[in-house]
Model the fold of this input.
Amino acid sequence: SLTLFERNLNQNWNGQQNQTVFAAELAFANGNIGESLLLPQTLDNSRILLDCLQEIGIKGVVLSIKFPLLQPDFPHSSGYLEFYKGIADECRQRGMKILVETGAIFSGTAYSPVYVDWSKYTAESFLGGMRNQLLLIAKEIKPDYLTLTEEPTTQEALSGLIISPGLWTDFVNSTLDGIDRSNGIRLGAGIGSWENRAYLDAILRIPGIDYIDLHVYPLGKDGAILNRVLDIAQEVRNSGKAVTIGECWLYKVSTEEMASDIGIDGKVYNRDPFSFWYPLDAHFIDIIINLADATGMEFVSFFWTRYFFAYLDYSTETRGLSIAEMNRRINQAANANVRDGITSPLGQHYQQRLRSRTPNN
Done:
C-alpha cells in the first residue's frame, strides 16, 4: 500500500521541498495521563524530552489537552492549566511551534486512568464545555495553532453522544467568534482521514478557519485512504486554506480488518511497539514528509513519540502481553532512553531526514 501510494504521489510532485514545520507529540504532556501531569517530575521529564526532540531536529510539538481537564469544576483544573502554561513557556524558550488539540479524554479505555461520567453530558453541554476550554487555551496558553475539533466520530465513540455535522459546524463558528486573534494565533479544524467527508465539507465553508487539520492512520486498501489525504490536501490548498497533520502513524491493520469500523482498538496499537516494524515505520515517515512537500503543508506531527526512542523485540513472551503491560514496558524503555539521550533506529532515521533538508526547512 505504501509503495502504490508513493508511486502516485511522485507523479503529482515536482520534488521540491516546502517550508513545513515537522513536529512530534509531546508524549509526557498528553492529557490522557491525568493527575500524573501534576507531579513535579512530569514537567522535568518534559523538558528533557523537548531537548531530545530538538536534537532530532524537530521544530514543533503537539499538546493534546483533553476535555474536561480545564473545566472549572473538574478536579485540579487550575493545576492542569498551570502545567500547560509551563510547558508552553518551555517550548517557546526553545523556539518550537505549538499546536494544541483537544477532544474527549480517553476515559474508560486502557489509555487513560481518568474517569468522566459522560452520561451527565448532552451534545450541547459537551460542545459548550469544549468551547469554554478552547477559549481558555487561546487566552492563557496562546499556542501558535489551535485545532478546534478533530476526529468527530472518535469524540462520539468516547462520549457516547451523537453529534451531527451541523452541530459541529455551529460549535466551530461560535468558538471562532470568541477568540481574540490579535496575537496571530492560527485556528483550524479537521477530521480523521477515514471519516465522513460531510464534516470536512462543512468546515471548508467556514471563512474564519485558517487551516484544515488531518489525522492520518490507516492506509486503506492499496493506499486508498492516503490517496484521499492527497486529494483533500490539494483541495484545501486550492480553497485558500492551509493544511496540517496534527497526528499520524502507520496503523497496523489488514485490509480485512479495515472492513469493520476501526474505532479505538487497543489490540491494533499493541502491535506498534515491535522492532520488526522499523522499516515500514521509516517508509511511512518518508512518505508523509514527501506528502507535506508535495502539498505545501504548514505543520506535520508524528504521534507515537516513544518509538523515536525505543522498540520492543518480538518474542513468544512479548507477543501475548496485555495492552496495559505492553504500554508499561514500552513506556519504561522509551523513558529510560530519553533520560539517557538514546534514540531508536526510527528516531535516527527521522533525524537524518530532517538534517538532509535544506537549511530553511
